[in-house]
């Protein structure tokens, strides 16, 4: 036909659209995701269903956002990925209200991530020791906040049992253990300095707190980076795992596991299945695997392989390079979609990855990246919509004004992710006016603020 002759991608275009169709989500489908998320949230909060719930809704024992009177010197640790940070945070109040930070970044090798727990925590204490020396503070016993970005069952602010490792960690002897205890034991083994570990902090909560220092309306924390997760201020009466009915408590949703019970099955494509099967934790964190930076490149790669097998891309030739797991990093996805890129540059990016491509190939690869990132942002938006409407309904409001503190490389670096996500929230939660605030170092500053608030409450004798 004329159309096929005029459009070089004619019939193959139809074949490709066929493959991509299940990855394009309608408003109706997104509303359904929001509804299911709300159902799973209820399951995690309720006493009788919590044990088998997949969205765990873990109590964090953080009951207050900063009020601006916090002050003092605090240490913060940040462990959540391949880097580990130690920070000194000076908080001043009053007219000269400010937060001043010094930090040092240390790497954690794969050997240590996947070795023994003792090695991991000895390495952490080693880094703290180096930092204290570097800051000339070996003698001081400072209050410490520990950002630990893995699912923990907390029974107090300063205690957390690691439920399971995620994001490529698998150090032995840690799951089922109190990580604050593991840290304290490692400090004792070293016999070099004393620290007062005041708070164990999830990075979502740190993000919410550091944004809450700037904006008192901030009651939700969101991470979209290597992994994804969220937290929000829930009414204590709804947190059935914790006694008491007055006030609020921040709940760490651990929403990456949404769908692990199969409730999102009708949204999974063959590509999601393949990525899941080839991951370190098959069957786990299924929502995260559709959204976060660690997995999007893999979804893209699997679609490109499928296209190539069907002769729709790379002239039907699957290179060794394309068979290589993990070649498309988050940076690549952000880069390829930036609007100022000419197709020639997209071709260069592909060439750098060892993929020989024509101009048509480049158009196709870019489209696949767009579809996958868009779906991720929409799913994330459906999750946020579920959360803000829950807060609104909790408070019997016809209208809620709320701020979401956000962190994570995908959110910050991707050219369209935040825009698509915010549009989705607007569509799915019309009765909420939601602002998004990028957090400045939630895991560092946030951990220090949580520690500072805890010290403030401790001094005021409110336990």
Structure description:
With 463 residues, the chain is α/β, with parallel strands linked by helices. It has two domains: 1-58 and 214-440, Hexokinase, domain 1; 61-201, Nucleotidyltransferase, domain 5. The chain has helices spanning 2-6, 10-20, 27-45, 47-50, 110-113, 117-135, 179-190, 203-212, 270-277, 288-291, 293-309, 330-336, 343-352, 359-394, 409-413, 417-428, 442-459, and strands spanning 58-59, 72-79, 83-92, 98-107, 143-148, 152-156, 159-162, 196-201, 218-224, 228-235, 248-252, 400-407, 432-438. The strands form three sheets. It has a six-stranded mixed sheet with strand order 1-11-10-9-12-13, with helices on both faces. A five-stranded mixed sheet has the order 4-3-2-5-8, with helices on both faces. The protein has a two-stranded antiparallel ribbon with strand order 6-7. The model is unreliable at 1-7 (pLDDT under 50).
């Amino acid at each position: 036909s004329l159309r096929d002759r005029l459009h070089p991608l004619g019939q193959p275009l139809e074949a490709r659209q066929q493959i991509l169709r299940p990855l394009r989500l309608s408003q109706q489908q997104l509303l359904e995701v929001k509804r299911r998320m709300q159902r799973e949230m209820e399951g995690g909060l309720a006493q009788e269903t919590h044990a088998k719930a997949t969205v765990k809704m873990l109590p964090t024992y953080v009951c207050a956002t900063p009020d601006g009177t916090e002050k003092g010197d605090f240490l913060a640790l940040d462990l959540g990925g391949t880097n580990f940070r130690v920070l000194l945070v000076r908080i001043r109040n009053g007219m000269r209200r400010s937060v001043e930070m010094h930090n040092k970044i240390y790497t954690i090798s794969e050997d240590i991530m996947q070795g023994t727990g003792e090695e991991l925590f000895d390495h952490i204490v080693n880094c703290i020791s180096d930092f204290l020396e570097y800051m000339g503070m070996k003698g001081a016993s400072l209050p410490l906040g520990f950002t630990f970005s893995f699912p923990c069952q907390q029974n107090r602010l300063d205690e957390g049992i690691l439920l399971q490792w995620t994001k490529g960690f698998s150090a032995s002897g840690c799951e089922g253990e109190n990580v604050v205890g593991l840290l304290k034991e490692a400090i004792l083994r070293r016999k070099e300095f004393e620290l007062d570990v005041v708070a164990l902090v999830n990075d979502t909560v740190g993000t919410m707190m550091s944004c809450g220092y700037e904006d008192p309306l901030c009651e939700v924390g969101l991470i979209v980076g290597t992994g994804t997760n969220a937290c929000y201020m829930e009414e204590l009466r709804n947190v059935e795992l914790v006694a008491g009915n007055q006030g609020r408590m921040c709940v760490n949703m651990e929403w990456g596991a949404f769908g692990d019970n199969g409730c999102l099955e009708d949204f999974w494509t063959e590509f999601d299945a393949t990525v899941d099967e080839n991951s370190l934790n098959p069957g786990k964190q299924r929502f995260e695997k559709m959204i976060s930076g660690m997995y999007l490149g893999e979804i893209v790669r699997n679609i490109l392989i499928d296209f190539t097998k069907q002769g729709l891309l790379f002239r039907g030739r699957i290179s060794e390079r394309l068979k290589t797991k993990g070649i498309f990093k988050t940076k690549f996805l952000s880069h390829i979609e930036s609007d100022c890129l000419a197709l020639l540059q997209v071709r260069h990016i592909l060439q750098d990855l060892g993929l020989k491509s024509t101009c048509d190939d480049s158009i196709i690869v870019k489209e696949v990246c767009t579809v996958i990132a868009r779906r991720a942002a929409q799913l994330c938006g459906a999750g946020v919509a579920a959360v803000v409407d829950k807060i609104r309904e909790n408070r019997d409001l016809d209208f809620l004004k709320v701020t979401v503190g956000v962190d994570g490389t995908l959110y910050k670096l991707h050219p369209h992710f935040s825009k698509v996500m915010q549009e989705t929230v607007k569509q799915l939660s019309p009765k909420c006016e939601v602002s998004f605030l990028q957090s400045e170092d939630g895991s560092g500053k946030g951990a220090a603020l949580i520690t500072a608030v805890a010290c403030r409450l401790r001094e005021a004798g409110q336990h």
